[in-house]
Structures are given as C-alpha cells and as structure tokens.
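In the previous chapter we treated chains in isolation. Here, by contrast, the input contains five separate entities that must be folded as one system, with a combined length of 1683 residues.
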Amino acid sequence: MSVILAAGDPLYVLGVDVTVVVIAAIKVLVAFAALMGSVTLMIWFERKVISDMQSRIGPNRWGPFGLLQTLADGIKLFFKEDLIPAQADRFTFKLAPYLALIPALITFTIVPVGNSVTIAGHTFLLQVADTPIGILLLLAMSGLSVYGVILAGWSSGSKYPLISSVRASAQMISYEAALGMTVVTVVLATGSLSTHDIVASQAGGFWNWNLIRLGVVPFVIFLIAITAELNRPPFDVVEAESELVGGFHTEYSSLRFALFFLAEFMNTITMSAVMVTLFFGGPSGPVPNIPHLEWLFPILWFLGKTVAFCFAYVWFRAALPRFRYDQLMDLGWKRLIPLSLAWMLLVAGFLVSPAWGFSLAAISLLGSVALTRAFEIGTTREVGPDAVLPTVGERPLPPYVLRRLTDGEDN
Amino acid sequence: MTITMPSVNYLAIAPILVLLGGSLALMMIAALTKSRVSLGVATVTSAAVCAVATIVSVFQWSDVSSHGESTTLAHAVAYDGFGIVATAIIAVTTLLATLSARDWIARARTVGVEFHILLLAAAAGAMMMAQANDLIVVFLGLEILSIGLYVLVAYDRHRSTSSEAALKYLLLGGFASALFIYGAALTYGGTGTTTLTGIAYFMAHNFILQPGVLVAGVGLMLVGFAFKVAAVPFHTWSPDVYEGAPSPVTGFMASVVKVGAFAGVLRILIGALGTQATAWRPLVAALVILSTFLGAGLALVQSNIKRLLAYSSINHAGFMLLGLWSATPRGVAGTLYYVMTYAPVVVATFTIVSLRGGVNEDLHELGGYRGLARRQPLLGAALAVLLLSQAGAPFTTGFYAKFAVLTAAVDAGGAWIGVAVMVAASIAGYFYIRLVLSLYDTHDSAEVVTVPRTSAFVIAVGVLSALVFGVWPGPLESLAQHAVLLLP
Amino acid sequence: MRSPLLIIVLLLLPVIGIATLSVRPWDARMTTRIAASLTVVQLAVSLVAAVGYHSRGGGAFGLTYRRVLASSWGLSFDIGIDGISIFLVILTALVTALALLGASHGERTFVRWILLLNVATLGAFVTRDLLLFFLFFELTLIPSYFLIANYGGPARSAAALKFFVYTLFGSGFFLVGMVYLGVRHQHIFGGDVTFAYDELAKVALSPAAATWVLVGFLIAFGVKSPLFPLHSWSPAAYAEAPTAGSMMLSALLAKLGTYGLLRFGVALLPDGVDRVRPYVMTLAVIGILYGSGVAAVSKNLKRLVAYSSLAQVGFIILGMFSGSLVATNGAVLLMFNHGIITAALFLLIGGLERRRGTSDIAGLAGLQGPAPVLAALFTVVMLGSIGLPGLSGFVSEFLVLLGAFNAHPWWAAVATTGVIFAALYLLWAYQRVFHGVAEGDNATVADATIRERSVLAPLVAAIVVLGLYPALLLRTIEPSVVTSVTHSAVSHGGGQ
Amino acid sequence: MTIPASWFLTLAALLFGIGAFGLLTRRSALIMFMCVELMLNAVNLTFVTFSNSLHDVAGQASVFFVMVVAAAEVTVGLAIVVAVFRRRQSNTVDDLSELKG
Amino acid sequence: MTATVPDLLVFLAAAAMVVVGAIGVITFRNPVHSAISLILTLLGVAVAFIEQEAHFLAAVQVIVYAGAIVVLFLFVIMFLGVDEREDVTVEPLIGQRPLAYASVFVTVGGIVAMLSRGGWVTGASTVTGPTAVYNGSTVDNVTAVGQSVFTTYLFAFEATAALLIIAVVGAVVLARRERSVEGGESA
C-alpha cells in the first residue's frame, strides 16, 4: 500500500515513524491551503487580466487592487439561497459538485513543486506523492473529473444542462485519446511514469526540456487537449453562455455553484502545473548559490512557469472565439488523434534507432496521406445528394425494379 | 534492460494473418476509393482470402507432417494438425458463408463492405481459438468471433428483430464470456500459468491433493462454452437469435462458432486438463444428455424452420460434446470430424432457408416448405439430403459423424450415454424426416424459389460434401484421425 | 462363377436403374419395364451366384471381397455370401421383380424408392462388415418410409411415422452394441477398431456384457422382424403400405431383422443367447399365439396377413433361439418360405384391393364364382402358409418345431398350437371371402389377368417345389448354419 | 502481504455473484451491461489476487486483456442498444416483443 | 511492508465500496444511479488492486473503466433519454427471480467452497515471470506488466488490435444513421 505513495520519495526510505507521518500530513495541508489560496488569486488574476485586455478596470473595490473581490464573491455565494430545481435528481444534484472538485485536488499531488528539502533530519520531496504510476494518475483524474459536469447537467432535470452533459461526455472521450498519446511520448522519452523522474530527466538547461526534446508538437497537442478537457475557452462548448446559458451549472446556485467554480479554476492551475512538469522541466532552472536558500529557487521557477501558463489560459479566453461543436469534434478525431499517434510512433522509432525513426516517419506520412483522402471521400459522400428511392414497406426497392419503373420498359 | 521478443513462425499463424489482412484490405479499399465498394468486389475479395487461407493450411499440414508439432509466439499459438484442420474448416466454411451471403445482401439491399470485413475478422477469431495455446488467446479469439457476430446478427437494419436478436445475443454472450474468463482466472490460480501446455505440464508434474480451484475454474469455463455452443440448459438465447439474425449469418453462426468453440474447449479440457477428466466429465455428460434430448424434443414442436434448425443445432452440439466427454484422442477426432462435416451442411441448409425466407425473413413457417420438392425437384432434393445428413442418415457424412463420436464414447466406457444419445437421435430423426416428407407432399403451396448461381454453388457444395464423403468417407476420416492435438 | 464381381453387379443393377430413371421422365410403362428388367437380370445373376457358391460347398463365406474404407472406424466394404444369405439374396431379387411387375403403377419416384429399397436390403444381406450392414440396414428405412408415407392408404402418415420411429429407436441399440463389440475387439487384439464379422467372432465378452449387447440387438432386430412386444408398428404399416411396399416390408425387411438376429446375435453372442434364451423363446411363443389370435379376429385381409407374419416370425425366432441345429435350419428355411408366401399373399390381396377398392373381409364375398383362377392361386398360397404337408411351409415349420421340441419341449408344444390357429383363421378368412354368394360388385370381379398369373406362377411353383424337395435349399443352408454355430461354439470355448 | 488472498477471492466471488444476479433479474439492457462489467471486474480482481499470491505477473497481464475486451464489448453493445432504441423507444429486454423466447 | 491495520482498513474500505456499489448497480431503478454506483465499485476494485501491488492496473482500471466505459454508458443513457425508472418490483418471468437467487447462491457458494477446499491458490509460483523481477533484475510493476504483455502475451496483444478494429467497425455499422439510399451497385 505504501508503495503507491512512496516510490521515489526518500521520506519513506528509512521506515515510517511519527515524524514522517507528520511531515506527510503537513505536505498535504500545505498543498491544500496553497491551492485554495491560489484559486482565489487566479480568479482575481483572470478578471483583472481580461479587464486590462478589454481596457476596463475590473475588480478594484475590495482590498488592494481588488484582491479580496473573490473572497467577497465567495461569501456572497455562501449566503445565497440554496435552490434545487423540482425536476432535479436530488442525490446526484448534490453529489456532482464534489465529484468535480475532488479530482482537481488529487491531480495536484503528483506535481513536483520544487526539489527535495531536508527538515529535522528527514529529506523529502516537495511533492505530495511521488507514485510509481505518477502520470497515469493525471489521466485517471482527468477521466473522473468529467463526471461532475455530466452528472450535474443530467441531474438538473433541464434541457440545456442535459445537452451540456452530452457534449461534455463526448468531448472528454474525444480528447482523452490524444491526451493519453502525448503523455506516452513523454513517458517514452523518460522511461518512467513518475513525475519526479520526468522532471529529473529534464534537468540541465532548457534544451533538455521535453518541449524541445520531443519537438514542439506533443506540447501543442497536449495544450489543446488539456484545454478541451478543462472546458476552457475556446473549447468551452459545454458551458457556452450564449448557447446553453451556462450549460451544466445553469441550475446551480449558492455554495454548490461556488464549488464548480472552484474546481474549474483549480483545474486550470493544476493543469498549468502539469504542463510545466511534463514539458518545461518543472522546477528546474538556474539556481544562484545563496546559502540556505537553494531550495527556494526551484519553487520560484516552478511558480513563474505556472503563472505564465495561467496567463496563457486567460489570454486564450480573451482572444479566441469559441469553437463550434462539430469543429471541436473534427479537430479532436481527425487532426489531434492521428497527429499524436504519428508523433508517438516517430518518437518511439527514433528512440530505437534512426532507421526505425525514418521508416516510421515514412509510414506516418503515408498514413496521413491515406487518411486525408479517406476524410475527403467521406466528406464528399456525406454531402452527396440523398436520392429518395421508393420503398416497399420499410425497405427501398431493389434497383433493378426501380430501373424498370423509371425506364418504363421491360427488356 | 533487454527484452527478448518471442520468435514468430509466420507460417503457423498465416491463415489468421491472411484473413485479418483481407479484412483490413477491404477496409482500406472502402476508405480510399471514391465509389462505394461493389458487392461483387467485396465477395470476390473475401472469397479469395478464404481460399488462400485454405491453401495455406495445406502447406501448414505438410510442414507439420514433416517437422512435427510446435508452439510459436511464446507458446501462445499451437501449431499442430488439430489446429490446422480446424482452421481449414473455418476457412472453407467462411468461404461458403460469404457466397451464401452474397445473394442475401443483394436482395436485402443492406449494402456495405463492412459485412465482409466483419465476417473475415470473426472467422479469424475462430481460427485463433482453434490454434490457441493460451487461455487468454482463447478468450480473445472467442471475443473477436462473438463481437463480430453480434454486429452481423444486427446487420439487417431494415428489420427490428435483427437488432433485437443481437441485443439478446450480446447480453447472454457477455455473460458467457464473463463465466469463461472467470473460469480461466481460477484455472490460472490453480496452475500458475495461462498457457495450455504449461497447464498440462503442471498437471503432469504435480499431484494436486485439493483440486478445488481447478474444478471450479474448469466448471465455469465449461459453462461459458456451453453458452457459446448453446448446450442445454444454456441454450435459451439460441432460437431467438437464430430466428432474428439474417439467415446466412445464422448459417455462419451455427457452423463457425461451433468449430471455433469446440476446438477451444477440446484444447483446454482435453489438451490441458485431460488429467482432470473425472472432475469435468459428469458436467459434460449432463450437457450431452440434456442437449440431445431437449434439442430434439423441442424441435418437434417448432413451426418456424429457423427455430427448428436452432434446436437441431442444440441437438448437434450435444453430439459434439459427446466426443469431448470421451476425453480420448478418438473423441477429439470424432468431434473434429463432426464439426467438419456439419459445417458445410448447415451453411447450405441456411442458404436454402435464406432463399425461401424472402427478403424480410418472414417466410420461415414450416408450412411454406410443403411440396417444395414437387415444384422444384432439385432444390427439394438438395434440402432433403441436407436434412437427412443432419438426421444421420446412412451414406451421408452425418451418419459417420454420429458414429465417430459414439465410438469414442463407447470406447471411453460410455455405452450407457451412447444408448441415451441414440434414443435422442431417433427423436431428432423423426422431425427431420417429417420435414423431408412435407417437402414431397403433393399439397402444393410452395412458391417458386429463385436460386441464384452463387447460392446454388453453396448448396451444391453442401449436398455433395454430404453425399460424396458419405459414400467415400476415407479422406475426411483420415484427416480427422491424423489431426493430432498438441500435447506437451 | 465364383467371382465377387457377381455381388457387385447385383448391387450395381438397381443403382443403374435409379440413375437411368433419373435421366429423364420416362412414361409409366417404360419406367416399369426398365426397372423390372433390371431386377429380373438381378434375379438371374443371384441364381448364378447361388450355383457358384453351392458348387464350392462348405459352410464358409464365398465370393468374398474386402476393401477398407475408413480404417480408424473399422469401416470396410466387405462382402460375401454363405448358405444363409444367398437365399435371402435370391428372395430379394425375386420379390422386387414381382413387386415391380405385379404391383407397380410405374410412377417414377415410386419405382426409384423400390429400387433403393432393393439395393439397401441386398447390401445388408451380402455384407460381412457390421458397420456396413448397419448402414444398409438403416438405409432401408428411408425408402420404406417414403413408400408408406407417400403412396399408402388413408392412415399412411401415422403408420409411416410409427414404423419410422420404432425402427430408428431400435437401431440405435444395435449401433451401440455393435460399437461396443468393435471396441472390445480393439481392446483385446489392438490395432484399428474393426467390425468385420470374422474378427468380431473372436471376441469373448463377459456373459453380462454379452447379454446387454444381445438385448440391444434384440431390440433393433426385434422391431424390424417384428418380435412380440415390439411389433405394434407392423400391422398398421403393412396394412397402409401400397402392395409393393407391403411385399417388400413383410417379405424382405422382416427377414433383415431375423437375419441380423441370427448372424450377429445368435452367432456372435452365444453367452448372451444362453442367458436370454427362455425369455426370447417365451416372447416368440407369445408372438405366435398373439399373432394367430389377432389374425383370427382381423376384419381386414392385409392386417390378417400382417398378424400371421408376426406368428411366422415367432416361429423363426423360436427356431433360432432354441439352440438346436435342426430348428435353426428350419428357421432359415422358413425365412425364405415365409418371404415367398407372404409376398404372394400381399400380391393377391393387392389384386383384390385393386378390383374392389377394399381389403376389408366384410366387403368381400363369394369371389370364387366370378374369379376361379384367383381363388385357386389363393388356395395354394394359403395352404402353403398354413403348413400343409407337401407345400413349403410345412417343412420349415416342422423342422423348427422338431428341433425346438427336442431341446425345449414346453415351448414347442405351446407353439404347435399356433399351427392349428393358422389353419383356422386362414381357412375362415378364405371361406368368408371366396365362398358364399357374390353380390353387387363382388359378382363382377374380374379373374386373374395373364400378368397376375405369370407373376404368381413362379411363387406358386416355388411353394410346391420346396415343399416337395426342401433339400434343394437345406443342403446349402445346413453347412453354413453348422459353421456359424460351431464357429460361435469355438469362440465360446476359446473365450473361457 | 498482510491481507490473505482468500479475502480478496471471496470478495471477487461475491462481486461476480452480484453481477450475475443482476444480469439474470434486471430487464434494462443498459443495467444488464453494467452487470457484465461487474462480473468482468470480479474476474480482474481474481486475476490480480492470484498474480499477487503466485508472484507471477501473467495474471496482471491477463487483466489488461480483459479490460480491452470489456471496452470492445461495451462499444458494440451500446451501439446495438442505440440501434434497437432508434427503432423502438424502450430499452428493456422484455419489450422486445417480436422475438418470443 | 507496512503495518497490518492500515492494510486492513484499506481492504475494508475497498470491500465496502465494491459490495455497496455492486448492490447499488443491481437495485437502483434509474440507470444513471446504477452507473454512479458502478463507478464506486470500479474505484473499489482499483483500491483493491493497489492493495495488491498492481499499481499499473489500478490506474488503467480507473482510466479505462471509470474514465471511458462508464462515461460511454452515461452518454448513451443521456443520448437516448432512457433514464426513466424501471419497475423492479415486477418479476420479469414467473419464478425467474427465485431461480436467479438460487443459481447465483449455489454458484458463488460453490466457488468459494471450492476455493477454500482447494487451499485457495494451488498453482506453481513464477511459471511465467515474477511480478517484480524480470531477467534477474528488479523492476517495478509497470515494467514487469509491460514486458509480460510484449513478450509472453505478444500474440494476445496483437489480437486485441483485431478485437478493437472489429469493435469500432461494428459500432460504426450499427450506429450509422440510416440514409434512404445506400449505394445502388449491388444489383
């Protein structure tokens, strides 16, 4: 049992005693608190950045620069009336927000925030848990996180939320595959599933980052796929205000609504952190030689990179128009999945030998040509005129009968 | 860290590769050509693929004859006469089913090259079962076969019974798969390996004082198989599914599933767990008795020919199980011979049923067959021969099939079970002969059935196989006899 | 001529007939002509074969030929004739020919079924391989089923069904018993499994096993013969079948049962015979009495003959199971005689039925007046059946009773009453049908046609000749019976 | 391992039984599918338990294949449900009135 | 290895999740509730996997089952709108339920009895390859499973490709929307 938490963490090597348990508990608490705190900051950050981009002032009443605005909003939501629609499935309706929140919290456990530190004779990683299945936990949790949305939409007993649910489930399944395959490319390069190992393998300068090592393509795919998984703009068809009036959370109010909100922003932060871990070397970066403070710089590097991604998400939201639902599906199935598959083959091939790499590249190229043609044909067939045949009962008439009917003569 | 990849004997898995390759090729053609793939192209391609697989199995046979049996791919695939013969049967039967389906597809206007893709892949699954030397491979083969069939059963989208039958089949098939794999898991726990030869080796070198785990595992696997081959009391799905599925698919189901499933079960129970025969034989005996009697008895009261043939197929499953019951090489040969001769006959029978049943599969009442032979002597005679062969009439292969499994059972000390199944056979003989008689009824109600050339070919093959090898049984007999099961 | 080719020709002739008739639809006359001429040739060939066999002497099989068809199943094309089977072969050819000549309406399929039945019966009589025998034995079922079901009287379906189910049910037991024998042979002697008669004769089963196998054989052959409790299909089938079918059924198929019982039961399983003897003999005697009794009260001539056949078969089985050589000889002779007599009877009744549209005794009276020749023919045949000294029936029944009496006097004594019964019911029936005053349609009944006379002539001749000179057959039959009985005695002794 | 294998095996048997029971008694096709999934999960648990107590990785590899099969079965199964449902607005097996079995 | 108590607690938690979830699946009237219940069971099984050192499978279990299969279920339920309640009080067939009770009870009881009589596990250890040792060197669970899949089960692995293809083709065939004309070249 312990192995799942302890694979790479030197904390557990010497056995478990009270101190170890205390340290582990403190790690969990610190991570939780930091995450919660950063969510409030993130919300403020998003509103502020968007207002800046739109030449507005944004929140500015509460606290310096409006920093406490989020807190105020939270208090407001807390005291609002808790409505449950009459048509709702009460149990599921109440359950859904928690299902949304929990995966977001758990995912963060695998993110290495900094290097190892030593306190009270115990060396440990600045990471809640370094599990041997590390990155698989990310996939698992991103798989689970969709339940919040699906069940919330369904249980509301209302049309728009239901459509949102259907969209969410389809979207999740569509992008999960591409996401998984890019993660596999990272794992191939590292040879380990552990996020600690992934970060360690990228140490020693930005040219070692997976971003560079694997070519930029996996990162781009990952970014797109994760954005879709997060239902962030421009892939927010699930909660599109203009189409679905907010989608799955239309019927939610009060604290439950706040939980969804919390989950979404927490996910944004976590995924930014995961992206940093997978492609940008995590906490790695130049460390100035300042005694007793070596541990601090990796954390700062990590935070810096993460904030950059958070900013990117906000920027997307401000700058990009929303995808149409069918475009979203097309992008997922027809572009990202084939591309990520081809890239995965390529990476695997070059890891074995250049010969393999080039031959797999050639195969991928051929495959992409074939795929393009198949899509083309599929499209032309789709739009082809639907000739209406006369039917007998439910079954169309056989063509030879038809020919006789239309030719008007029997040869 | 080095990984030693297992060596691959490509000839050993060539038929499987050929079928899957053909399936894939059809898929590619469908995806990459502008016009839709015509039925002709699809039929010719898949028929050619099956023919190639059959020819390949001839080469395999001579290879195994000269070099002996072996396993390949890390003991996952057995390369032995038994597997080759079963594979060849599957290839030939699939060829016939393809041709039989051609006319149905043309008439029913459910165009789509997917039919052939699925048919070939399902047949490849059956071949995997036939050649498997690992419980997991058996399971995967079973699933490939079953999943292909679920879709094929639902293929007629103009008829709601088709998809309903598929749903029923799928639910019970899933249940059966779960039972089987649970049994496989317990067997794994009991022996520490999933390889069949490994299990046999383990059994040979260990004396198991408490075989509880194994007994439970074997029992569950057997029940799973009983579901798949529709042995009583696990047969309840089969009449409905036989009725609902498109007739050529029913023919394929009645033949290839039996070949694959019996090949798999013989490998597992006799090849690997033959030493535990005392544990599983009572269960098989119960299945044999129940299947033969209830299959024959319930067939008597059917008024729909597809349901009747479903019960008849249950009855035949009972006979095939008799070879398993005997748990001897002779039993293996007997069951192999049984499926070998039953397969073409049943495909041909369902071809006629398909022609007679009409596009909407709504003309399956037995009354509709009255006087068929009067109006269309050749077609009627063909159906009569096919039915008589299934009844086990002398000088048809059906008789030797029953004889072969009966001999095996008596040889294994089962004269009592032999007597029992022969009584059941006489009940079965009655409903067959009654149907045959109604074909020759002077009461002329049968409409004229047009027989397209491909269907005629399939029917002719079925009839000739029953008659020619009925008079001259030597070749098939020695084939079955020499198809030795791989033993460690 | 001692070549096995003769037998193969025998088997091929009807096959050629079927093939020829399938080529194109000949008219009824031509169809009958083709088929009948082939069977007449067959009869001639069988006579040649008989002469060839007899000239060789001894009781063993002659004209043998063996070719393995499927070694692992022990299936071989193994043919030959001996003193027991040769006369049944002749009988088969003769009855088929007469059935085609005297009782066929020339319908193509009908004739083909008759020919198929002929080849199946013939095949069963000439094979020495039990499996092949079984194949032919079973094959007879299909044509006879169709003959009854498609061409029979008003209740034909039920009759055909009963016939089919009984026989099929019975034959399963034979198959299992036979397979058991073959497998035992393999267990003892090794090698491939075999069903060759000579080989199986070497197998010494334990008495219990032998009894079980014999019981299986008794069920199968008892149904076909028919033996008393298994007979209930036969009156209906005989009565409903068309005349030709009745002839074939009673004259040939019933012999198939008794022949099988003698050859494969009595000869192969002496230990079993010892155990079941009292029961089987009792059943046979019951059959004789029951058959005679029911025949006496039958209201229909065909049923009457059917029940009388039951009684006759009772005699045959009594003879075979009495354990006496004399009685066994008598039984074999009776097989032949009964075949001829019963065929003649059915032919005559068929003629009456054709004329009057019924075979109910109540509807017939005083036919002697308008049809004297018919009556005369009937008289001779009937007397033969009764067992009048000087006619064939007498000799065989006498031998059976004599042999049986020496061995088991009580059974024989009771069985003898059957002879008296036979005289009673046949004479009574004759009286009702032919004596008295002919009224209505009965008064205008046509006498025997030339064709009928010529068809019946050989049968009547045979009845008379064999009555006067039974040694013609007996001297061929006896050595073979001795061989098979000693043969079994040897194996019996050898097995201990 | 501190938890005996027998506990897990019993748990798996129980799960299998519950799944089988559901499959036999429920009529909704979707729930019947879910019951098949329960049964397959019981199988997985059994495989893993044996794998663990035999110190043999084959059992875990087998689970991998069972999962693939489960996924494939569900794909096709749900497609059939959709096909059936498109024709008739119900998903209970008893309502499949055209086939009486 | 760690102390017994946490292991026990984890086992109890897993067992509770599994059993409660499974019972939920078969008793809830609403398919969506059953699906939620199913997730609980699946997670319970995943926990049991972790407890037995099968980390990789635990993750895959969550990803494949919870992440994909149940989502698919929910998708279909919502897509078709079949979330109405099924009346579970009506017996499907007379006597089917008692029969199901009996047969399942007998089967499960039989299996457990068999297992206990058979000493639970009787197989030989490490026939195929140990869980954590491969080619003499200690590797982690993921590696061991991966190596097993690509060596011992290579053929099975390739067969899954066929399986998935056939499933995809089948699903497409079945779910494809009927159009009034489907190619006319068949004649």
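Chains C and D do not touch (no CB pair under 8 Å). The first helix of chain C runs from residue 5 to 23. Compare these points with the single-chain example from earlier in the chapter.
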